[in-house]
Write a structure and sequence with these properties.
Layout (H helix, E strand, L loop, with lengths): L3 E12 L6 H16 L9 E4 L10 H4 L6 E4 L5 H14 L5 E9 L16 H5 L5 H16 L3 H15 L13 H6 L2 E3 L2 E2 L8 E10 H7 L5 E9 L20 H13 L8 E3 L5 H10 L8 H7 L15 H5 L3 H17 L13 E8 L3 E8 L1
Parallel strand pairs: 2-3, 2-4, 9-10
Antiparallel strand pairs: 1-7, 4-7, 5-6, 8-11, 10-11
Helix pairs in contact: 3-13, 6-10
Length: about 375
């Protein structure tokens, strides 16, 4: 497979934007990415776009222009954006194209996600029993993990505190005000042990990435940020995942373990070689569990990591430098691409108040969604 580079990035701020549809937010991000790359919409040879609840991505041509551009619609849970990126990466890595766009957007209704059992091949009683309520499932999964590995509520609070501290420096973040640890820990309990500041919220936003072949990237003077790996995996036997039809008493594998291992193998590097990481943090416990599942620490070691500040901007592995889902919210179609956007910003050295020191050279992203889909990308400067 040939080398593929990210030559342009664009983002529509996350949160709530009245009077602008999700599709229009996606078009906003595409225009910004094109401007960043010094290109026009007519230069694009193909696109992969994703949205969960804001319309078909291919209809973005109504906003951008009717050029006959082939666009593939992607819908793959929280891995929608990452899957769109993989499709675009493959189109260029195969040699079929030289330029393409991966984009994602969403505009979710206010309130919790309203997943329906039938969408996941589950019977109606599964929802009637409350198993479709993601806050309850994630809390239940986290309680078991905390009991097994000695994680405390203090660690959960520190994850959220870090997220809001970082989000204050990210112009695209929804929550841009720091929240002190005491407020986080003493706020309303949603699903024990998770308080309201430990959960992300459905949101709105759009992200676009322009991808190019090595030859084209050099012509543009943009051959700095290379995609070293891009993979997705679904759940293996024995995994403990949201919206699964059954749960094993004994923990088996996990989709993140598979995706992470495959990405590191593809990139030819290991966890110790990563300089900055963006990990799925739909709630504080998710970031903690994913630190270990992605190979960055041992189960239970997260308590020390957070107490020592090792995952903060100036730590040994900065995690979720723009505040992650906790600060940005989670418009499903855009969220995974936001992580990649943030890593490009970091590798370019243009992160401002959230910039990782020491000129990072490698960036890692991980996204996880129902019913057990994980996607990982690795960038290299």
């Amino acid at each position: 497979m040939a080398d593929v580079f990210i030559v342009g990035i664009g983002v529509h701020p996350f949160g709530r934007t009245e009077g602008r549809s999700g599709l229009q937010q996606g078009a906003f991000a595409i225009r910004q990415a094109l401007d960043d790359a010094g290109l026009d919409w007519g230069d694009m040879q193909f696109g992969f776009g994703g949205s969960d609840s804001a319309g078909n991505a291919d209809t973005v041509v109504n906003e951008m222009g009717l050029t006959g551009l082939p666009i593939i619609n992607v819908r793959n849970g929280c891995a929608t954006g990452g899957s769109a990126l993989i499709g675009a990466w493959q189109g260029i890595a195969s040699g079929q194209y030289d330029l393409g766009v991966a984009f994602g957007f969403d505009k979710h209704p206010r309130g919790a996600f309203n997943a329906m059992p039938a969408e996941y091949s589950l019977p109606d009683w599964y929802g009637e029993a409350g198993m479709m309520v993601t806050t309850q499932f994630f809390a239940m999964k986290l309680q078991r993990y905390m009991a097994q590995h000695g994680i405390t509520p203090m660690a959960l609070g520190r994850v959220a505190q870090k997220a809001f501290d970082n989000g204050a420096h990210a112009p695209h973040a929804w929550r841009r005000s720091p929240v002190d640890l005491e407020t986080i820990l003493s706020s309303q309990m949603i699903s024990d042990p998770l308080t309201k500041y430990m959960f992300c919220s459905p949101a709105e936003g759009g992200v676009a990435l322009i991808l190019a072949s090595k030859k084209k990237a050099r012509q543009l003077g943009r051959d700095r940020i290379r995609i070293k790996a891009a993979v997705t995996r679904t759940r293996p036997p024995g995994s403990f995942e949201v919206f699964s039809p059954s749960l094993s008493i004994e923990r088996g594998g996990a989709p993140t373990l598979l995706a992470s291992a495959a990405a590191f193998d593809m990139a030819g590097i290991g966890p110790d070689d990563i300089d900055v990481a963006q990990l799925q943090d739909t709630e504080s416990g998710a970031e903690i569990m994913h630190m270990a599942e992605n190979g960055f620490c041992r189960d239970g070691q997260q308590e020390e990591w957070l107490a020592e500040g090792w995952s903060r901007i100036d730590g040994k592995l900065p995690i979720n430098t723009d505040g992650g889902c906790l600060a940005c919210g989670e418009p499903i179609g855009a969220s995974g691409l936001r992580q990649v956007y943030e890593n490009v910003v970091q590798l370019r050295g243009s992160g401002g108040g959230r910039q990782v020191p020491g000129e990072p050279k490698t960036g890692y992203t991980h996204v996880y969604g129902a019913p057990g889909i994980s996607g990982v990308t690795i960038l290299e400067r």
